[in-house]
Amino acid sequence: MTALATPERTRPRGVAPTAGLRRPRRYGRVLVYAALLLGAIPTILPFVWLVRSALMTDTQMFVAPPEWIPDPFQWSNFGEALTAQPFGLYLLNTVIIAVVCVLGTVFTCSVAAFSFARLRWKGRNVVFALLLTGVMLPYAVTIIPTFVMWQELGAIDTFVPLTVPAWFAGAGGGVFNVFLLRQFFLTIPFELDEAAYIDGASPWRVYWTVVMPLSRPAIVVVTIFTFIGTWNDFLGPLLYLQDESKYTLSLGLASFQSVFITQWGYLMAASAAVIAPIVALFFFLQRYFIEGVTLTGIKN
Amino acid sequence: MRRFEARWGILMALPAILGFVIFTVGPMIASFFFSLTDWQVGGHPTFVGLDNYAALADDELFWKSLSATTYYTLGAVPLTLIVSFAVAMLLNQKVRGLALWRTIFYLPTLVPAIANVVLWIWIFNPDFGLLNSLLRQAGLPTSQWVYSEEMAVPSLIIMSTWGFGNTMVIFLAGLQGVPRHLYEAVSIDGGGPWRRFWHVTLPMMTPTIFYNLVVGVVGTFQVFTQAYVMTEGGPNQATLFYVYYIFRKAFTESEMGYASALAWVLFMIIMVVTFLMFRNARRWVHYEMAGAR
Questions:
Q1: Residues B132-164: pLDDT tens digits?
Q2: pLDDT for B255-279, tens place per residue?
Q3: pTM for this model (two decimals)
Q4: Any CB–CB contact under 8 A between B9 and chain A?
Q5: E strand or H helix at A17, and its extent?
Q6: Assuming Cys at both sites, which of A158, B65, B227, B280 could form a disulfide with B245, CB separation 3.0 to 4.6 Å?
Q7: What would the DSSP string read from start to end of A77-128?
Q8: Domain final residue, candidates A74, A105, A133
Q9: Architecture in CATH of B58-292
Q10: B16 interaction partners in chain A (CB closer than 8 Å)
């Protein structure tokens, strides 16, 4: 408390020289780190619980009070869980769907964003505003007719209902990507386009050789978020996929859970295996993740 | 070139426009017509006017799902906003290892919904789960968590708050965008940290808070996976969230007409709530920054 009351100017010179150019704040520093640690512990704890349970024998898992270090490390949980159901196949299915969705979303959204940002045509702004209303639409309103439509088309139990909408600018909530890319495209100098047009380039060429190469950060952001969204999607596969050989990881994990309902070691091992690729991806592309979330929030 | 511009413009926007028509406008209109029919899957829809909507009034489960969802939203949204704002404030104090801290707090949002559910069923396990084990060790009373009618929704609120990372990152970006000279102005006037918070940080952050509020409310109103996998709407329908009820009606009981009416009511509710939030926003959201740019 006394530290808090100390006026800033009376602070003796030379305190906290490590802070370099920044103005060092002497009070509350410790408090800030203590509070962060206090927040970090409950955030991390579920992960620790996940990993320790995934590596424990059943007998050790049910010891009270709980033990934290597996003894022995039951690596076989992973092997047994992941072979009890064809998780390799699920992984392949998930990757196929995710890649097709990413390609479709990035292509159609960026093309549309280019049109809305850099080409003039009648009714452009009205159309864009209309499209944006799709972002706010609750998906629950459209799932029933969409399901009926795919059923009529005989597309149930195929990847079609899960991937085709991505090739229409993501459809519905995916319009947000058009918005995000358009915002980014607007920041690229228009003189570049003009110069290219004078050289006889078509809008397509301008899109492909001028705007897209300059928009890598935004493209990466859309790629990551579409990938994660598809990877984590549960309702879509649940509605449209029936045959077990077509399951995605999410759907596979759900069915695994209903079979091995009390086999916590297996369940945690399978969960950890489903989480791991996404976490790994995050560590590689961390900067883009944060930029992406930031971009989505700030531009609003 | 200008002649081609319009043609190219429409062509390039076409996938997005078609997508909007096929996957948004079309289904919306269709869903409205479905909602006016009595339609079991496999049979033919018969027109029943507004009967489905009238039937909602007497549908106990409809009211139950509405109140469960509202309860969940009223708990999860404010809690997530407060926690993520507080952590963002801490991270904005020029802490060392910002990237590491940010990663720690962001990680839970990466966990796929279904893996999240499986993990938390185990955490909530009344006999051997993490929460009760810790409570027992601390000598505190334990809980049945998702297995008790009273604690089921609060449990899911706790679980959803764990994924506050996205909201936090947006807050953090907002905080870093607050002009430094405003803080300096308050300091020159002799204001301390508390003053700076109330007179600069909070007002300047209102647009970001508003954004996170709207996104949060619209999102939590459509919560589904937890109810479907974790609780199946129970115990005693305590977690029969609205979208899960729609799902159940449509895809388990095949009552497409009734489910469509439910969906449209949800749509109206979300529109009205969003509209009210926007109207109310004028009173507390400051947009001076936009003008200054």
A1: 989 998 888 888 899 999 999 999 999 999 999
A2: 999 999 999 999 999 999 999 999 9
A3: 0.86
A4: yes
A5: none
A6: B65
A7: HHHHHHHHTTHHHHHHHHHHHHHHHHHHHHHHHHHHHHHHHH---TTHHHHH
A8: A74
A9: Orthogonal Bundle (1.10)
A10: 108-109, 112, 131, 168-169, 175, 178
